[in-house]
Amino acid sequence: MRNLLIIAREDFMNLIKNPMWIFYATVFPILMVVILGFLTKDNYGKEIGSYDYYGITLILYSLLSCGMTSANAFMEERIKKPNMRIIYAPGRVSSIFFSKIIATFVFSSIMHLFDMVLLCLVFSIHLAAIPQMILLFSLVELFSITLGIMLCCIFKTEGMTNQILSLVVFLISIFGGLLFSMDGYGEVVRKICSLSPAKWFSNTAFQMIYDNNYSTLLPTVILLTVTIVVMIIISLLTFRKEDCIC
Amino acid sequence: MLRILKNNWNLLMNQKNYLILSLIMTICSVGAAILITNNVEIKSNIAVVADEQSEKNLSTPYFHITFLDKEPPMSELVQNRYDAVVIPDGNGGFQIKTIKSDDLKKELQKFLDQPSDYAFTNNVARKIGTNILGYMMMFLLMQGVLYARFFAEDKEKHRIERVSMSPIPFVIYLFGHALFMWLLIFVPSFMVVCVTKLFGISIGFSIPEYMLLIGVLAFLSVAYALFINSFFCVVDTANMLASSIVVLTSILAGSFYSFSKQDSLFNKFLHIFPQKDFMNFSDAFEKGNITFGINLQFCYIIMISLLMFTIAVVKTRRSYLYKR
Questions:
Q1: What is the pLDDT of residues A127-142, one digit of tens each?
Q2: Best interface-test mutation with A: which of B79, B109, B184, B256 has the largest number of A CBs within 10 A?
Q3: Does the beta carbon of A17 lie under 8 angstroms from any beta carbon of chain B?
Q4: Is B53 helix (H, G, I), strand (E, B) or coil?
Q5: What does each C-alpha distance from A18 to A21, A83, A109, B42 come to in angstroms?
Q6: Residue ranges of the alpha helices (H) in A40-181?
Q7: What is the pLDDT of residues A96-138, one digit of tens each?
Q8: Are strands B84-88 and B94-98 parallel, antiparallel or unpaired?
């Protein structure tokens, strides 16, 4: 356990020292919200504005794309040698990827929380049920991080993981209406969209904020937890320490 | 140059599952683009909280009207499921509830006052081919960024320093990479379009027109990817920066739907993004009103791609060729 925390701390330092990741986690979501919100501002009335919609969905989008950060933190060219040292050190080998999950989770949570607070202050985004929202968002975050780690364990290379992740995340975000709302596009499109997990998350979030309706929170949380556990098990099964030798 | 193609091909063959995966990804994304655009209905959705029998005169081709027993929850309004909720107040009048702009409210009021002789003109709608290309654009641009890995790995693993010692000039070297990436992007996506056409699904343009448009788009994507990658030595940094720029600029350029109003200053500013010019061109091409200005925009796409490619060559040459 102590080993795990030491490695996780090093991984966290590695993440926070890279300006690119800080840009990706903070500036990019804010920029997206500002631009999209500004462009669609005229479509909305006074009570609920475009920022209220995009503030939630685009943060969800950046939560989902966290998997790329974790994949980078796991199998980046620079990090391969440190990983190799860990497999020779005493202690459990699985702490290599557990530490990455912890470090990326802490890093991205801090960054996204900062984003959310800043956006709420600047655009006064309508929020409610904050504890539940934080629970939902952190689970989504953990989900995407574990997904990135799992794909890395399966495919052994970061390039491929990134390629799959960026397209999959992009597809489910488009279908989930995270980049722009798809719900108004007719019955067939609505059916296709309801298949996207991103749609379930955003739907749960909006129902909690605007209807005080928590009925979908529990199923979503259970589903996410089960998926995370399954993905961790798959990672444990497919991860071989030989992969870290370079 | 052939040697680079061959080398890249061998690299790719070494990672066969990578190739298969990329092909599946391309097929999926282009397929999804076609699937979505073929089913999109662009109409305002109105919920009427009343019995269908009592409000018979409200049938119209301009709005999509749903009759409900009780008011839909607020979250459905926020998520754009319904644009407005209409509640009859019992004596012929209506109460309109919407989170959308006043324009929509006025339009709806006009319709509710005179349902029979209401007409609404919508001339901004794009045709199907342009929509498909709009959806495909972002995927193709992202694919370029991902395939630039071959070049980026050459840099990251210092293979490029050996190239600089070899008799191959950098122009040829980069052109080899560009050609390879272009084929990887162009061939699968074009195949999907052809297959869809064979199945008789309407896709707007004809096959040669698609060949031209996808070809140009793939070229832009390749040039952009090499341009960004020539400035960075680490694969991930270039990758992340490039893909975030692609997402941002494509949305701004209105690859899904046009956000900005025509003739505003902001809209003119958006034309510096080649994606915007591309959408404009394909829109005009499909509607058949190509003017000199539109042709100019098309040239701009090619020019900017060439420019980015040239900068990539110059930058690479400067970083790896030692003078004296």
A1: 888 889 999 999 999 9
A2: B79
A3: no
A4: coil
A5: 6, 18, 16, 44
A6: 50-64, 66-75, 80-88, 95-123, 130-155, 158-175
A7: 888 999 999 999 999 999 999 999 898 888 888 888 999 999 9
A8: antiparallel
- Cα–Cα distance, A237 to A107 (Å, whole number): 26
Are the C-beta atoms of residues B299 and B157 closer than 8 Å to each other?
no
Structure tokens, B86: 């209409």
Chain A residues whose beta carbon lies within 8 Å of the beta carbon of residue B64: 186
- Which of A98-107, A202-211, B153-162 shows the lowest mean pLDDT across its residues? B153-162
ipTM value of the model?
A: 0.77
Structure confidence by residue, pLDDT tens digits, A149-206: 999 888 887 777 887 888 888 888 888 888 877 777 777 888 888 888 999 999 899 8
Share the mean pLDDT of chain A: 86
Which chain A residue has its CA at the smallest distance from B157's CA? A77
Task: Single out the residue of B99, B97, B100, B116 nearest to residue B48, CA to CA.
Answer: B97
Tell the residue number behind the tokens 């701004």, with chain if given: B252
CA distance A2 to chain B (A): 30
Whole-angstrom distance, CA of residue B83 vs CA of residue B62: 13
Angle of CA points B143, B144, B146, to nearest 5°: 65
In terms of Cβ atoms closer than 10 Å to its own Cβ (0-12, 13-18, 19+), residue A17 is exposed
Looking up tokens 């780690």, which residue turns up? A149
Q: pTM of this prediction?
A: 0.84
- The partner residues of B48 in beta bridges, in order of sequence, read B67, B86
